[in-house]
Amino acid sequence: MLTIGFIGSGNMAQAMIQGWSGNPEVQLTVYSPNSGKRVAKELGITAEDSAMAVWLKSDLVVLATPADQLAATAKMLQPAILMKPSVIVASVLGGISLAQLHQALGEQLIITRALPNVNVGVKYGYTALAFDKDTNPDIKGAVAALFLEFGRTDELAEEKFGAASAVAGSGPAFVAAFTEALKQAALKNGLTEEIAARLAEQTVAGTARHMIEAKKTPLTLANEVMTPGGSTAAGYDVLQKGNLNQLVLDTITATMAKNAEFE
Ligand SMILES: NC(=O)c1ccc[n+]([C@@H]2O[C@H](COP(=O)([O-])OP(=O)(O)OC[C@H]3O[C@@H](n4cnc5c(N)ncnc54)[C@H](OP(=O)(O)O)[C@@H]3O)[C@@H](O)[C@H]2O)c1
């Protein structure tokens, strides 16, 4: 049995707890000063009264507080870290590097920086992982296997995290915006709210699943749907004339620039 402890029980912690719940080999526990007990009850896991208690019970601790709480968390954890330095840390703190994590928590610890997206909660997430240079391959494999339970993962150099964060971390909001645009177009053309929503959601979900399961690139799939000179091609032309690629590139660039301000 592996015990995973969470410090912080906000949106990301809850998504990860949902992603891991149901694994009979994993026991989950959480500490969060205000919402910890309520979230634990709602999600059917145990709550602890302190960050120290979570650390001492866990094999892996997920840091899931706002990034500016790292120093406060490190202070709360210091006695527990000294008592049990074997705990592996997985930090999801946005914009906090492995070097900063070591500086706050201790140079001796094994630390993984993880960048999961919100879709881990429905087991269809994406998580970028960065490890310390000297991390044992068995530990890397074990940590990656945990994140693979709720989606796909890649080991990435930390300098790529900004791009990964904009595309995969913020991406669900952008894909949701496109889904809403499809829904609005269906509504404008006389479909009911309920059916417009179903058409848009199922089309986006099914298209992603089709590309992944049939290993098709987006362009391959697009070309399969389009007969040259046909109706889909007429619509696709409008997207291209509106410069969809540039619009999305500008979206990602603005997201990365804002993230950089926070770092
Ligand atoms: N949301 C995402 O899609 C996403 C994606 C990737 C990474 N992240 C990163 O994940 C982290 C958490 O994000 P979030 O969206 O889950 O934030 P959130 O919903 O605001 O939740 C933050 C949680 O941290 C708890 N907390 C605050 N100070 C604490 C402290 N000193 N000790 C223990 N717990 C403390 C809060 O406690 P109470 O509720 O008890 O007050 C709350 O449960 C951030 O660093 C963010 O950059 C988020």
UniProtKB/TrEMBL annotation:
One of its GO terms (molecular function) is pyrroline-5-carboxylate reductase activity. It is found in: Cytoplasm. One of its GO terms (cellular component) is cytoplasm. Its EC number is 1.5.1.2. NADP(+) binds at I7, G8, S9, G10, N11, M12, S32. Catalyzes the reduction of 1-pyrroline-5-carboxylate (PCA) to L-proline. This is Pyrroline-5-carboxylate reductase. The lineage of its organism: Bacteria, Bacillati, Bacillota, Bacilli, Lactobacillales. The gene is proC.
